């Protein structure tokens, strides 16, 4: 049994101390403008409220499915680590497209360098996916984060990672564990525009159809969605969650998080949404 909180797309921004030369070039100026524009849509205080409430929820774990940052800067990752250290339970993260925002950040494996303590687990060939086991439950962390040109927020898992994912799901399934797959981009059709989509989602779906999973969690679109992928013995639920720091007040897009109780016999979900004062439990 594992009880965990799922949040995503927290987009924590910190530019203090970043040398101006980083932004002088055309390459980053546009991206900085985009980030500042996006910053108006997020309030980091909402993440602090979430962390404060996390202590009251009897959690075993706190899960963030990517887009922790905006520009994948060192300052942003340092801020994430500072915030994560205040969370009263262990944290699991996977990367989103903003966490490998530039080729430099991807080349340096900046996300992995800072976030490695939150991605401990079994890894074939030292690569994604990583597997964290908790008695009869496994969290399987997939990376769909790849550096892309500006205005392109696509993701890709890649054939090698998907081959490893297929083997891992098969093995964990044979052991009877409840398999919770974490991936930043929605792995289903119809949720993302072409420039925002997981480009190899059909290959991902084939893996799930062959090997199965009990639950797939994602972020990226900043909206709450319940979809599914076909599995070998029935539909596999695919749940997306709104951004954990969104100031938007629209149905499904208001800042939210979910709390899951997962065991080998199934799962339940509680949904919490920001009501202007606190994250309040929504009626199912
Ligand atoms: Fe994203």
Fold and architecture overview:
- With 284 residues, this protein is of the alpha/beta class.
- The chain has a single domain (2-281), classed as Metallo-dependent phosphatases (Purple Acid Phosphatase, chain A, domain 2, 4-Layer Sandwich).
- Helices cover 27% and strands 25% of the residues.
- The protein is built from eight helices and 13 strands.
- It has helices spanning 21-24, 26-39, 44-54, 74-84, 103-107, 110-115, 159-174, 201-211, and strands at 2-7, 61-65, 91-94, 122-123, 130-134, 137-141, 178-182, 215-218, 225-231, 234-240, 256-263, 266-274, 279-281.
- The strands form two sheets. The chain has a seven-stranded mixed beta sheet with strand order 4-5-6-7-8-10-9, with helices on one face. Strands 3-2-1-11-12-13 form a six-stranded mixed beta sheet.
- β9 (225-231) and β10 (234-240) form a beta hairpin.
- α7 packs parallel to α8 (201-211).
- The two termini are 21 Å apart.
- The model has no long low-confidence stretch (mean pLDDT 94).
- Bound molecules: fe (ii) ion (FE2).
Number of E strands: 13
Give the name of the CATH superfamily.
Metallo-dependent phosphatases
**Spans of at least 5 consecutive residues with low confidence:** none
Secondary-structure-based class equals alpha/beta
CATH topology annotation: Purple Acid Phosphatase, chain A, domain 2
Which architecture would the CATH scheme give at its second level? 4-Layer Sandwich
Major sheet description: 7 strands, mixed
- Helical fraction equals 25-40%
Number of helical elements: 8
Number of domains: 1
Radius of gyration over all CA atoms, rounded: 18 Å
Shape verdict: globular
Helix and strand string, N-terminal first? EHHHEHEHHEEEHEHEEEEEE
For the biggest β-sheet, the strand order reads: 4-5-6-7-8-10-9
CATH domain class: Alpha Beta
The percent range for strand residues is 15-25%
Integer average pLDDT: 94
Bound molecules: fe (ii) ion
The span between the termini is 21 Å
């Amino acid at each position: 049994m594992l009880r965990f909180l799922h949040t995503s797309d927290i987009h924590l921004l910190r530019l203090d101390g970043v040398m101006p030369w980083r932004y002088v070039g055309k390459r980053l100026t546009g991206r900085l403008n985009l980030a500042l524009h996006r910053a108006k849509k997020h309030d980091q205080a909402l993440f602090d409220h979430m962390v404060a409430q996390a202590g009251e929820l009897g959690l075993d774990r706190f899960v963030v499915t990517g887009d922790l940052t905006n520009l994948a800067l060192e300052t942003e990752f340092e801020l994430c680590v500072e915030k994560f250290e205040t969370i009263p339970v262990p944290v699991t993260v996977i990367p989103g497209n903003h966490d490998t925002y530039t080729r430099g950040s991807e080349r340096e494996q900046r996300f992995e360098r800072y976030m490695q303590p939150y991605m401990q687990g079994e890894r074939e060939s030292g690569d994604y996916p990583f597997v964290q086991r908790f008695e009869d439950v496994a969290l399987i962390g997939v990376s769909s984060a790849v550096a892309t040109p500006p205005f392109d927020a696509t993701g890709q898992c890649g054939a090698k990672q998907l081959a490893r994912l297929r083997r891992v799901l098969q093995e964990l399934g044979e052991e009877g564990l409840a398999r919770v797959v974490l991936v930043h981009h929605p792995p289903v059709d119809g949720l993302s525009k072409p420039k925002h989509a997981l480009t190899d989602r059909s290959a991902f779906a084939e893996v799930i159809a062959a090997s199965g999973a009990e639950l797939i969690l994602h972020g990226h679109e900043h909206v709450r969605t319940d979809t599914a992928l076909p599995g070998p013995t029935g539909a596999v639920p695919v749940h997306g969650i709104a951004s954990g720091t969104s100031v938007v007040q629209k149905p499904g897009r208001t800042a939210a998080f979910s709390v899951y109780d997962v065991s080998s016999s199934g799962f339940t979900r509680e949904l919490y949404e920001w009501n202007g004062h606190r994250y309040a439990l929504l009626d199912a």
